[in-house]
From TrEMBL:
Keywords: Metal-binding. It comes from the Bacteria. Belongs to the GTP cyclohydrolase I type 2/NIF3 family. Pfam families: DUF34_NIF3 (PF01784). The keyword Thylakoid does not apply. This is GTP cyclohydrolase 1 type 2 homolog. SUPFAM superfamilies: NIF3 (NGG1p interacting factor 3)-like. NCBIfam families: YbgI_SA1388 (TIGR00486).
Amino acid sequence: MKIRTFINEFEKFAPKELAEPGDPIGLQIGDLNAEFSKVLVTLDVRPEVVTEAIEQHCDLIFAHHPAMFRSAHNLDLPVPQNKMYAEILKHNITVYAAHSNLDAADNGMNDWLAEKIGLQHTERLLDGYVDQNHHQFGMGRIGLLDQAMSVLTFARLIKQRFELQGLRIITQDPQQEISRVAVLGGDGGKYFKQALKKGADVYVTGDVYYHTGHDMLAAGLTAIDPGHNVEKICIPKLATLFRSWQLTTDNQIQVFESQVDTNPFTFI
């Protein structure tokens, strides 16, 4: 089967139009017209992931985070990132990324995170693309916990459910009782005012900037930063989605879930 056929099926689920302006989604490296039989699903495209794809004889790497956030200015191969690109091309691997379009998709990244946290009665946090049927898409979710709990108890629940070594809490009162929770996967600190506007008691997002943390405290918002790597939930979720397609079954496409831990941080 051609990679393009597979990608066309995926883009029915998470259309490119959902992506944030300037987000380098889609084809990263390779040829969408190439035939493939094995796909590796990953959060990040790192040298170890490429080695994993080569060892599994995968023709396609399907990632959440684009391999090329920043364009290469040269292809000096001693540079690890450039060497990785060379290995991808050498082994005829195509790399495709679904980033903010997957974040904004219905039943996509932020629904998976909200479900993992245990939120009920969820709605969009942000308003984004509106399709021809007047359906509104958007990143982030906000909803209710089954029962109210303290910030500290909720933070421990997040740590346990995502199997984290540690996380950061931004709060004036760890014993504050909370029930309405907003979540946005990845780096969502700049959207904290939207969480406040929608009545969130606590905002769960990664990579909160130091001064943004101050702004959150000043505004009276509690936040929990579990890091960016919790988005690895996309690996089993995407793999399950792909395996559910008749298209995949009919063409005997094998779907592999990356086993590489791409989290750059270790907590001590």
